[in-house]
Amino acid sequence: MTRLLACIELLRPRQWVKNAFVLVGLVFGHAWRDPAMVEAASFATLAFCLASGAIYALNDARDAGQDREHPDKRSRPVARGAVSPAEAIAIAGCVAAASLALAIWVDWRAAGIIAAYLALSAAYSMGLKRVPVLDVVIIAAGFMLRLLAGTFGIGIAPSNWLLACGFLLTLFLGFAKRRAEIVRLAEDAGRHRAVLEHYTVGFLDKATLLCAAGMTIAYAAYTLSANTALLHGTGGLALTLPWVLLGTFRYLYRLRLRGGGGDPAEELLRDPLLAAAVAGWIATVLWLIG
Questions:
Q1: What is the pLDDT of residues 85-96, one digit of tens each?
Q2: Which pTM was predicted?
Q3: Helix locations, the chain, DSSP H
Q4: In the structure, what pLDDT confidence band is assigned to residue 254 with cuts at 50, 70 and 90?
Q5: Count of structural domains, the chain
Q6: Is residue 67 part of a domain?
């Protein structure tokens, strides 16, 4: 039983909340009333959960030596010896195959997107994660593939606004994570993650602020657009902007003044105000669009 729990932990199910990006298209594409679309999006989300779990397992197998020296990562299953690197790679292969099989059952387009995500993420794990800036862009691209899986992958036309806001948001979170790692690990940062040797706090502060500004401006323009009002049957989406600003500024506050920002999922669990901002945005969007 303990071994089974370690294998499940290897897939990091607590991180699967990030795959909720797949479901965004249901809301903004007005497809939530279609049971077939809801079913397809749900299975596409599960396929992405399995795919991301496979990549986590692959990363842990490759980075076990470094993880043992990390203050947080040393408790991961491979690093602490609960699962061997070979077993982790085998689990990654099986789970990746299961994710592709599930995606094929949903739609061939969803399967293609999952395959692209697995290939891109594997390339990241094998070496691209050591290339500054590109490492964050690849992470953001992974989230774009999630959005595409929940739109194009199940037959919903993706919105350019949705893709632009999502890309800027994930760039913001990616650069914020790099900053949090540099601050937390200090002079050991490069030893734990090689790419951190090429970043500075000053550069990352500018990058996070630029992405945060771009994201909020793009989202504000989207909510105020006449086409948006026509699509959703309401001109009130600007009411969701305060939630976006609250969440963005709160995240920057935790990043710059409270040593946070390393993991969005953990930040949501630790900070009630940040969680309230996200919940308020979701509730307001559903109220206005629904």
A1: 888 899 999 999
A2: 0.86
A3: 2-10, 24-28, 35-62, 64-67, 85-106, 108-126, 134-149, 160-185, 189-192, 201-224, 226-232, 241-257, 264-270, 272-289
A4: very high
A5: 2
A6: yes
